[in-house]
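[job 4471] stage=fold_predict status=RUNNING
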Amino acid sequence: MRQPNLKPNRSKPETLENPDLKKLVEACIRGERKAQHAFFKAYYGKMMAVCLRYIKDRDSAQEIVQDGFIKVFDKLELFDFRGSIEGWMRRIFSNTAIDAIRKSKRNPFLSDQDNDFKTPAENPMEEKESLEFLQLKYSMALDCVNKLSPAYKTVFNLYVFEEYSHKEISEILGISEGTSKSNLAKARMNLQKMLETKYTLIKS
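[job 4471] inference complete, writing structure tokens
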């Protein structure tokens, strides 16, 4: 199947709803280039944002976006429209970004200092409130998120934005559930410190 020329489009993304989306997807599966361009244009910005959560360098993120779209077009016929296509795509792009990180470093998802932080007793309500706070601040603090180590940043993204469980994260990254929980706690603590510093400077 011929792939579209995957170049970013800076125009406002289109909003695709059924049944228009279904028709577009079916056209993409048939290999119609015009449809593939329209699909790419509609989702490029959102998928770039997903990749930038994992990869700080924009050029590298752009390469991952292109790889991700190639995978999406290859797998589109597997999408059954029972859920959100955007959510389905986000998982493909996050996995593509994780694969890129894994190839570039040895054991990138293991904490270098697994013993330097004792994970507190879990309080689901406090954890939910804290993560919701960080999620609200995320759009204004992407630079802070990008300062996290790959181990912390990847677990944070998978847990908060992709809504994977610690069991699923452990299977994806090849780490224990305990390490996943620990890295999330460390990511959350480090982000809170960076955000507090950031907003203190803004107010001063």
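[job 4471] summary: The chain has two domains: 20-104, 124-203.
[job 4471] exit 0
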